[in-house]
Design goal:
- The chain is of the alpha/beta class.
- The chain has a domain of 191 residues: Glycoside hydrolase/deacetylase (TIM Barrel, Alpha-Beta Barrel).
- β7, α6 and β8 form a beta-alpha-beta unit.
- The longest helix is centred in the first third of the chain and has 23 residues.
- The chain is globular and about 125 Å long.
Length: 336
Amino acid sequence: MYRTSPSPSSGRGRARRRLVAGCVAVAAALGLAACGTASGALQPAGTTGSTGSTGSTGSTGAVRSPGGSPAATIAPSPGADGAPPAAPSAAATTPAPHTTATRAPSTSPTPAPTPAQTGAATGSPAGEHAPPPGHGGAATVIGSTASGGRTVALTFDDGPGPATGQVLDLLAQYGAKATFCQIGQNAAANPALVKRVLAEGHRLCDHSVHHPQPFAKLPHDRAAYEITAARDMIVQAGGPGTRVGWFRAPGGGFNADNEQITASLGMSSLGWSVDPRDWSRPGVASIVSTVQHQLKPGGVVLLHDGGGDRSQTVAALKQLLPWLVAQGYTFDFPAS
């Protein structure tokens, strides 16, 4: 009897069946669903089917969401609590440096400030800046004396206040005349000082009711109130016959609108040409030096007798008045 030798193919078939059986047994033991992918790797259940419960793989092997789109890790947007995340950018796969998320600023409108909040008359001016003559874009803003030549106009802002009497005493010693740009509220609170200013031959200027800044940004009605009401307060404090010849906008904040309001009340818009920034209390030497270097014949000097501690201004005036006389200056009022 001849024994038939098993064909190689049948042997390979039995070996394959034993391998598959063993694979299945191992897979069952390990909780794996299948084996024998193209690479021979074992895969967890649910990843090889096209609609597996946890997702599927595409030809690139990228993990996909149940809907079929590629899954991604979404970082929360700063300040977007509770908002749906936005789609990641291409750079989202690169870790970004750690930053602290901050909320976006509120878009709620800010309530309009009250007059008391926009600049109390008793506080220091919030940053006066010296405009050149004609500041405000119009030739009607005055920055020179009425007479011209070797004259000077001294002007004092923000009073009347505790330093006003000292300033008047010094001016009297040198026969100097000056213009006092008064805050309406301060004039109403110190009528005796307003009357003294007039009695000693000085002149008055309107400097608004509350010194709001930036003055050029005020709406028409508010600007009209600040100018008109201050003028009325000063006139009432000065008594019958009181004349207010100028208006000086806080911070030099002139514009076409407030210049027109000023003109309609019979006043001129008053700027300045010399600003030692004495309101900031830079030191007596600084105040004196700035005036001496900036002053030209016919100039208008900006100083302060109110709005805070004016002891440096008074001390500087003690030096400036004799210097002006020695330089041949005479004292004048601003042009009008």
